[in-house]
Amino acid sequence: MLFIEYPKCSTCQKAKKWLTEKGIEFEDRHMIEENPTKEELETWYRASGLPLKRFFNTSGMKYKELNLKEKLPDMSEEEQLALLATDGMLVKRPVLVGESFVVTGFKEKEWMEKLGL
């Protein structure tokens, strides 16, 4: 499993602690030092079944600075994925990528369901 995080993010810290306490093994990846590529994001988006907007960190400063609330509805999926790949701070965190699922953000109930706990 791949756990993509921003280490200073309290939600990421909480999710990481939760995974560790559950004894779940994962590979850790810093989303700023190693921003997800457009190809990765597209693969995860398709595998997740989630709306593409769920991959955006809508409460982040970068999202607000770029006025994405107004711009996203007029952008194609291709443009949105390319934009997400430009800056890890635009990506909703954490992202957990398993063999048969992808989840964004940390909602314990959703994660338990996806992990079969």
Automatic annotation (TrEMBL):
Superkingdom of source: Bacteria
InterPro entries named among the record's database cross-references: Arsenate_reductase-like (IPR006660), Thioredoxin-like_sf (IPR036249), Tscrpt_reg_Spx/MgsR (IPR006504)
A Pfam family of this chain: ArsC
Signal sequence, renumbered to the chain: none
NCBIfam families named among the record's database cross-references: arsC_related
PANTHER family: ARSENATE REDUCTASE, PROTEIN YFFB
Family named by the database record: Belongs to the ArsC family.
Protein name: Arsenate reductase family protein
